[in-house]
Write a structure and sequence with these properties.
Elements lengths: L50 H10 L5 H11 L14 H11 L5 E8 L4 E7 L5 E8 L4 E4 L3 E3 L8 H5 L1 E4 L2 H16 L12 E4 L9 H12 L13 E5 L3 H8 L6 E5 L5 H7 L8 H15 L3 E7 L7 H11 L4 E7 L13 H12 L4 E4 L21
Parallel strand pairs: 4-7, 7-8, 8-9, 9-10, 10-11, 11-12
Antiparallel strand pairs: 1-2, 2-3, 3-4, 5-6
Helix pairs in contact: 1-2, 5-6, 7-9, 10-11
């Protein structure tokens, strides 16, 4: 089995604009889109704003600034989405503040469940009709939300359904945060089997390349992790930001003073193969990406996760396990091997179990920690690489 020919490497920087239609067709092989097409902005939401900015808005409405904190506590701490429950706010003021700072951003179009209801994929429609997905996964010891940062993705990895769809637009800060808040509400209300609970972990591994929407993702990280009334109060150490390897953005993330975990979607240890599997490698090579990851780890003290989709006869050879082990040994790192999840029309499939086991042994021989990831949600197209925001009638 051979891979399709890679498109030409395109030496683009983060300011490059690629113009796409309202309903973009799949991009040509190797084509990268770093900046999203210009579109109308979602209505302002309190999750877009810092605590000080919310108070300024409320003061501009002629109200006392502390009312902004009250409204924020309803949204972030009490997980309230019904204005009628905000009884500490006078009704006329409540309506005014909700209109100004709590507009409806996302409408659930479809929800699919798997794993006896413990995995739930939601298809969201934004104000402009754009569709994207998030996934909630409840485990015995934690509940993880996999959130999207873009509608579609511009990184064009050929084995990923999201990447093959192209990039429609960036999600706003509040659109990202609302995915988490919606999951937190469903957990708090006991709507997920297992009784009432809380969202404890966030992974930016849904649709999109988070670091291509860096400004909004950074703000979302603060709203997710800041204590109430600033945000949801989830520990930064329980948040993972994934990237295919936008080196300048990794370096800037390391300057933010955050302690979120970095995950690098590597998928190949050699430039020859990764140039085709992960087109961004035509811009920043494996060594540059890993050097940036090690620098991030040194600044934050956090272990780096290496994501590696296991593709039969493509990247699962024993010699590639040995090469990867040599690249990673001695670093604060953990490898997540991901059996390739099927996507429509793909001729690639997951590695044979014996090759997967041999790959694990090859990494362990170099002292590299490795786990084969649980393929939660595969039957509802909710697993890694399967999110495509296709409407289900």
């Amino acid at each position: 089995m051979t891979l399709p020919a890679a498109g030409p490497g395109i030496p683009l920087d983060l300011g490059y604009w690629s113009v796409m239609s309202e309903n973009p067709s799949p991009p040509p092989p190797g084509q990268l889109t770093f900046a999203a097409p210009r579109r109308a902005k979602p209505p302002r939401h309190l999750a877009d704003l810092s605590t000080a900015e919310r108070r300024e808005v409320v003061a501009g409405l002629g109200e006392k600034p502390f009312r902004a904190d009250q409204l924020s506590r309803h949204y972030f701490a009490r997980l309230t989405d019904d204005p009628a429950d905000m009884t500490d706010l006078p009704a006329p003021l409540r309506d005014k503040l909700v209109d100004e700072l709590l507009p409806t951003l996302l409408t659930p179009i479809n929800e699919q469940t798997a794993d006896r209801g413990m995995t739930r994929k939601t298809l969201w429609k934004a104000f402009d009709g754009v569709l994207f997905e998030s996934v909630l996964m409840r485990y015995p010891d934690r509940t993880t939300m996999c959130v999207s940062s873009q509608a579609g993705c511009g990184m064009n990895c050929p084995f990923c359904a999201t990447g093959q769809a192209g990039l429609t637009r960036n999600l706003s800060t509040a659109e990202i945060v609302e995915q988490v808040a919606a999951g937190a509400r469903s957990m708090a209300r006991g709507q997920v089997p297992g009784g009432p609970g809380r969202v404890s972990n966030i992974v930016f591994m849904g649709m999109g390349e988070p670091l291509a929407n860096r400004a909004n993702v950074l703000r979302a990280l603060h709203r997710i992790t800041d204590p109430s009334p600033g945000g949801l109060g989830i520990s930064q150490r329980s948040v993972t930001v994934s990237t295919v390897g936008l080196v300048p953005a990794i370096e800037k993330l390391g300057e933010e003073g955050l302690s979120v975990r970095l995950a690098v979607s590597l998928h190949a240890p050699d430039d020859e193969l990764r140039d085709t599997l992960v087109p961004i490698n035509n811009r920043w090579k494996v060594k540059e990406v890993l050097d940036a990851a090690w620098a991030y780890s040194k600044k934050t003290g956090r272990r780096v996760s290496i994501e590696y989709a296991m593709i039969k006869d493509i990247n699962d050879q024993a010699w590639r396990a040995d090469m990867l082990g040599k690249l990673l040994k001695g670093h604060l790192v953990h490898v997540n091997l991901i059996p390739l999840n099927p996507t429509p029309g793909s001729k690639w499939t997951a590695s044979r179990p014996e090759d997967e086991r041999a790959f694990v042994r090859g990494l362990e021989a170099h002292g590299v920690a490795v786990t084969v990831r649980d393929t939660r949600g595969r039957e509802i197209d909710g697993a890694c690489g399967q999110l495509a925001a296709a409407s289900k009638d």
